[in-house]
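note to self: dont lose this again. the chain is below, predicted strucutre after it. 416 aa total, dont forget to put it in the shared folder this time
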Amino acid sequence: MLKLQQVSDFNVATIDLSALKNNFKIIQNYRPTRPLMPVIKGDAYGHGLVECAKALVEAGATSFGVLDVLEGARLREAGITREAIFVLSGMDSGWQINQAIEHRLSAFVYSLQQLATFGLLVPNNAPSVDVFLKIDTGMSRLGASVYQAEDLFKKARIMNSVNVVGVATHLATLGDGHALKQLEAFWKIASLAENLLGDKLVNSALSGGACLAHPDYPDGISRPGLVLYGVQPQLGKEPLPHFPPPWPRQEDPLAFRRLPGSANSGLPVTPSWTAKALEVMKLLKPVMRVRSRIIQVKDIRRGDCVSYGREYQAKTALKIGVIPMGYLNGLHVDRSNRLQAIVQGQLVPQIGRICMNLSVFDLSEVGSRVSVGDEVVILGSQGKNVLDAFQEFQGQKQNPYETLCLLGRLNQRRYD
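---
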């Protein structure tokens, strides 16, 4: 009997856990005095929630950001018991809050209504739930507005059901003027929170890319996501304005005690994307490699059409190869006739419309050396060529986040 393992062997996403640990340590060493909360939501961006969490614990991680209580519960059941686990998308039902209490999960709270839900549904005899209060400083996604922040802080201060451990925001961009405006607004909000809730709060504003873009920002705990998986962050769309920030330099041991306007503020900002940050980015290693295999090689004539809709017509005689990978496996139809792969170290173009589980590549440059069973690299390296999750899909409808999530979850995963 043919085993399922043999059938699914055509398409494989290989996850390099040593590269993941390497990337974590690189980011941590770049800002050694600032702890990190690795973001492993969405099944660790398609890399495998439990496997990545265990590897990151080995690398020194002490907290995680996950999608929902289900991911948090999975980690607890898999033996991740000592580390703090924060549910980034919040909780708004009795079942979710009960799961949080049972599995000792923490939450990001982003509205007065959500706070009220905790007040109503957390049992009186239950321990309080640790929370970050999230403020929207310019992304217009989750978070209380800056005008609601004071009310949010005052409400949380009198509640026994929650224990506020910090305040957070999320940046819409990285090293540009809008990011600085958000950080400036958040610094003021964090100062307000300290005044109302005490000075032991932890600030959290920076993603992994933002850590590189704003090395002097005194983030209490940063939340690296995409960079952990070896994808270089996208640069801002405009130069970073050079004006004094309202926060102290990173070297200041009292960074979390000094408020805007103090004697320590007004120091020159470190330019965004400095040479050091660019060097750090080069050290990041891709964690995911995706490959398929050729299942048929054939010759077609000039004028022959390839795949549905006759969207591609051969202008000359071609040698083509078919792989058992399509939109069912994460190759978006909109990338038809624009995707590249690597076969025998040679970049080859995808041609014709991508189908549910089949795609066609022009192998003419490889020539007679190609045969059925040859490896086809969709993401990663072979020989001297590399297909990066950002560069490969730049300017197309699919971004690197989506690419990793789909390719990692829709194909068999193996771990190195």
